[in-house]
């Protein structure tokens, strides 16, 4: 009888168990290289970075310069929070910010500078908080976060640079359409997460 | 007994949960979402009609309609995902093809607000159908990006074809395409009623 119970328990374990893994996107890749690839391989992160970059690039130069500084500063602030053992689930926040940034792009209306700045700063913080690798040493965690911060900033800056060159009417229309696509996708996933 | 425990331990260590062709992963999620609107002829003709009508109406409709549609489609998708009942979804989709095709065929040029409201209303039905059929297992964001981009590209196809309206023969061709879409929409409607 005890044997039978043990066998049933073992079968149940086999049936439901999954492979143990830290918060890595590519199995076996952690540290700086893993962090470097993280924003590129997590769709929600990539979407947020692209929309934030497009929003930043749509601003005039003095404002854009501030945003380009604000984003890495917000990333550093998030890393400090992580080192101080602050943790938060920001997956929904990332989608919300993606949806807001997409909607801002689609609307293409002049907004108070503080609104754009808040969205970009919040995006930088949320992205880093959601990129903390689990079950790694402090050194490995910082190494992975450095990689994430670097590649996220590069993607953000490149998108902002490209977006700033979209000055013809049809190019600006394309940017607005991309914003509406991003907002629509993020809203749908938020609804799905709400149901689950 | 020891051997059994050893085998079970190894199995537990390496086992993954069973998955029956759920389409896990980014690529399958995006591909599945991208192909979803393309395999529904009622969706395809309505999306192309939105683009054709936008091109016919000219600026600012050519900009506004492809922006309004995905946002309203997302609203419809949310209704579908949340399971909020929306009657006559399939009929709404068929009617959208018939009405939008008719608008193009008649070269109708209503006020932009009326055009945007009409397109937005139809987008809710299309979004609802997509939302209600959202698959489990696929990467949700990749899937939704796939179907939103596919929808947008169908609009762009319509706009590209609609740019022929700059020439008299092109205008005729676009109106003929609108007629064909309207007839297709009526055929979809006839099948449902």
Give the gist of this structure.
The complex is a heterodimer of chains A (196) and B (193). Chain A has helices spanning 2-16, 31-41, 43-57, 61-83, 91-107, 113-129, 138-164, 169-195. Chain A has 196 residues and is an all-alpha fold.
Compute the number of structural domains of chain A: 1
> What is the largest interface, and how many residues per chain?
A-B, 34 and 36 residues
The helix fraction of chain B, in percent, is over 70%
Helix share, percent of chain A: over 70%
| Biggest sheet architecture of chain B | none
Distance between the termini of chain B: 66 Å
Radius of gyration of chain A: 20 Å
Q: How many individual helices of chain B? A: 8
Structural class of chain B: mainly alpha
What is the H/E order of chain A?
HHHHHHHH
How large is the count of helical segments of chain A?
Answer: 8
Oligomer designation:
heterodimer
Overall number of strands of chain A: 0
* Count of spatially separate domains of chain B: 1
**What is the count of β-strands of chain B?**
0
Separation, N- and C-terminal Cα atoms of chain A: 38 Å
Shape of chain A: globular
| Average residue-wise pLDDT of chain B | 85
Low-confidence sequence ranges of chain B: 16-24
- Note the beta-strand portion of chain B: under 5%
What structural category arises from helix and sheet content of chain A?
mainly alpha
Describe what this molecule looks like in 3D:
Chain A is mainly α and 196 residues long. Chain A has one domain. Helix content of chain A is 78%, strand content 0%. Chain A is built from eight helices and no strands. Chain A has helices at residues 2-16, 31-41, 43-57, 61-83, 91-107, 113-129, 138-164, 169-195. Chain A starts with a helix and ends with a helix. Chain B has 193 residues and is mostly helical. Mean pLDDT of chain B is 85; it is low at 16-24. Chain B has one domain. The relative contact order of chain B is 0.21. The termini of chain B are far apart. The chains are: A mainly alpha (196), B mainly alpha (193). At the A-B interface, helix 1, helix 3, helix 5 and helix 8 of A face helix 1, helix 4 and helix 7 of B.
